[in-house]
Specification:
Blueprint lengths: L7 H6 L7 E4 L3 E5 L7 E7 L15 H15 L8 E3 L15 E5 L10
Antiparallel strand pairs: 1-2, 2-3, 3-5, 4-5
Length: 117
């Protein structure tokens, strides 16, 4: 398992590694996946190092914040109405590859544009 110092997502969230951020607030960053599985494939990553969904404190609203961010980005990219998927892989058996909590936002109908309102 990675530590904060060698965690790629920690380094991106802390601006120590270059990434084309498409969204940032005080709790999360979002950027396009380098190996997209759909026309639109965005990763939403908390700035705090939390290895898996299992490690989120029970009283935390972080997962809700991540999901609300996914909805915001789906609207921003114009895929909210035609459709998208949001999911979190957990541990190796759940296909998690980077052990820093992150959410995937995917859509196969993205037109490659943003649709700011």
């Amino acid at each position: 398992m990675t530590t904060v110092d060698d965690c790629i997502f920690c380094n991106i969230a802390n601006h120590k590694k270059d990434a084309d951020l498409i969204y940032e607030d005080t709790r999360v960053v979002a950027f396009h996946d380098q190996k997209p599985a759909a026309k639109l494939h965005v990763l939403i990553v908390p700035k705090e190092h939390i290895p898996t969904l299992n490690d989120v404190p029970p009283d935390s609203d972080l997962v809700g914040h991540i999901v609300r961010t996914a909805v915001h980005l789906a609207r921003y990219f114009g895929v909210a109405e035609p459709g998208y998927r949001v999911f979190i892989n957990v541990n190796k058996g759940g296909s998690q590859e980077v052990f820093h909590l992150h959410c995937h936002l995917l859509s196969k109908v993205w037109d490659g544009k943003t649709h700011e309102k």
